[in-house]
Amino acid sequence: MTPALTPAWPERAAWGTAPSLRAWQTAAMKDYLERMPRDFLAVATPGAGKTTFALSVASELIGRRVVDRVVVVAPTEHLKLQWAEAAARAGIPIDPTYSAGKGKISSDFLGIAVTYAGVAVNPLALRIRTERFKTLVILDEVHHAGDALAWGEGVREAFEPAAKRLALTGTPFRSDVNPIPFVSYAPGTDGVPRSLADYTYGYAHALSDHVVRPVLFLAYSGEMSWRTRAGDEIAARLGEPLTKDMTNQALRTALDPAGSWIPTVLAAADKRLSEVRRHVPDAGGMVIASDQDSARAYAKSLRAITGEAPTVVLSDEKAASKKITEFTSSDKRWMVAVRMVSEGVDVPRLAVGVFATTISTPLFFAQAIGRFVRARSRGETASIFLPSVPVLLGHASEMELERDHVLGRRVIDETDIYAAENDLLAQAAAGEAASSELEGLPFEALGSEATFDHVLFEGDQYGSEEEMDFLGIPGLLEPSQMKELLQQRQADSAKAQKARRVATGEPDTVAQVSTHEQLAVLRRELNGLVAAWHHRTGQAHGITHAALRKEAGGPAAAIANADQLRARIDLVREWAVRKSG
Question: Nearest Cα to 482, choosing from 454, 457, 508?
Fold first, then answer.
């Protein structure tokens, strides 16, 4: 039997969903109640409604007297409060102020909410509490149990005696090999152990069900200049093929509040927000910053642009949770936050984001974008502004891929027994500086300029000389309408560009421009085709570039000549035709 939730809950469901529970929640509930496992891992994309599902399970188990207490473990203090509010609406009062060693709680509560860090402080106290009652433990964003060895050990010790354990995550993949407590692993087709989910509801599925919003990524590049520790001044274009160090330093230069890149992108994002608010009046925007100083500086720029002081959320402020709650229920335009709002925080009206942080792991990127995809009504689209950096563009084009937590690589034969060590060495080498001139700090940003690069939507790339072609897209469009409009505007831009060249006598082909411009155009075209091939086949960008070099010959793209670049462009196009045929 599917539990009926309180009237507040159906209002949170997206367009087209069931009156009480969404289709995926009903299916997952049915699977859970039929098998009644002790451990259950539900992987659902951010914004799909994991909280509703978990509290529905809790309500059913309490009603059947399978459990009589609930413990929620969340990543942050704010999420404890959010869980307590949601549980209250579902008729399950829990205490979010509980701390390990506190002892008894009021008889008005059926459970408590704690953080992973709080569990690690005193796991024995929580183990005693778990043993005293028939307890359901809800592990929210359970991948955090692998963040530190003490956290994982604490979770395992505290909740090993639990009657039931329900693990939830929207991003199960991690960059380390720490096993997550109470999660099962099994070898995949390649022999590498991977996490096993009991129920999976990915972003692509949720998108087709109109449960989450599609995402329009607007990438900005530009000219950067900075000074190395050796005193050398370097100029480079953000997004061009560079060494790892130079890419990182170019990105840090772009995000420097004193440069021109950030104010230009913030102004463009505010224009986009104004267009969205014409159709979604309470739509809000959020800037994700790397640190507190940058967050305050970005807020100052936004105030100058909009005339309205944004909400600034800093993780070490006592009033941070209150600020998020107030912003959620208001119609203010902008919020600026450091890492606190990157995961789990539910602000459904967020529709425009600026990814202005140097943190670029797949896990963090997915969590951050997850703040913007929570659908409220059909036709809403999220717009994310981000630096035109290959790793971020790669994450953006892989939004619809489903991943598992991989524990390590398989040993193929006796010659491969040092595979793990070789992987560690490769990671260490990748992190080393490319040259002695670029090693270490200090690093000084000298200046930056922002230019619109292109748009990514559902893995496809669209470009135009006029960024307003994209900033002015209506705030309510179906994905098919969005795609059609993007294609039309790109075609119109190409026609206008060609007509202007004919009228002014500007060069119309790559061959007619200077050598450095010619190479830049060819590299951009090659990188775009490689990205498209990656989206189509799943093959990593580096592997594709290596295959092209092997077949067509020549050095790396960054130093290849025009003929070599053209040969690779022709080759990847030939691959595409061959695959289509």
Answer: 457
How many angstroms separate the CA atoms of 255 and 386, rounded? 10
Do residues 313 and 337 make contact, with C-beta atoms less than 8 angstroms apart?
A: yes
Distance CA 456, CA 458 (A): 7
- Find the length of the chain: 581
Give the separation between CA 547 and CA 568, rounded to whole angstroms: 10
Residues 6+ apart with CB under 8 A from 71: 111, 112, 113, 114, 126, 129, 130, 135, 136, 137, 138, 159, 162
Element (H, E) at 514: none
Token pair, residue 500, equals 């202007």
How many angstroms separate the CA atoms of 257 and 262, rounded? 6
- pLDDT by residue for the chain (581 residues), tens digit each? 334 333 333 444 333 333 478 899 999 999 999 999 999 999 998 888 899 999 999 999 999 999 999 999 998 888 898 899 999 999 999 999 997 667 788 888 999 999 999 999 999 999 999 999 999 999 998 888 876 677 889 999 999 999 999 999 887 655 556 678 888 878 777 677 777 889 999 888 888 888 888 999 999 999 999 988 878 888 888 877 777 888 889 999 999 999 999 999 999 999 999 999 999 999 999 999 999 999 999 999 999 999 999 999 987 677 777 888 899 999 999 999 986 555 546 788 999 999 999 988 877 888 888 889 888 888 899 999 999 988 888 888 877 555 544 454 443 343 343 343 344 334 433 333 333 333 344 568 889 999 998 888 887 778 776 788 889 898 888 888 888 888 888 777 777 766 765 676 655 444 444 455 667 778 777 877 787 777 777 777 777 887 888 888 887 776 778 888 888 888 888 887 776 54
Identify the burial level of 68 via C-beta atoms within 10 angstroms of its C-beta, where 0-12 means exposed, 13-18 middle and 19 or more buried.
Answer: middle
* Burial (CB count within 10 angstroms: exposed 0-12, middle 13-18, buried 19+), residue 279: middle
Q: How far apart are CA 370 and CA 48, in angstroms?
A: 10
* C-alpha 531 chain-centroid distance: 18
Residues 94 and 110: beta-carbon distance below 8 Å: yes
For the entire predicted model, the pTM comes to 0.70
Contact 54, 25 (CB under 8 A): no
Per-residue tokens: 273: 């927000």
The per-residue DSSP string of 127-180 comes to HHHHHHS-EEEEETTGGGGGSSHHHHHHHHHHHTT-SEEEEEES----SS-PPP
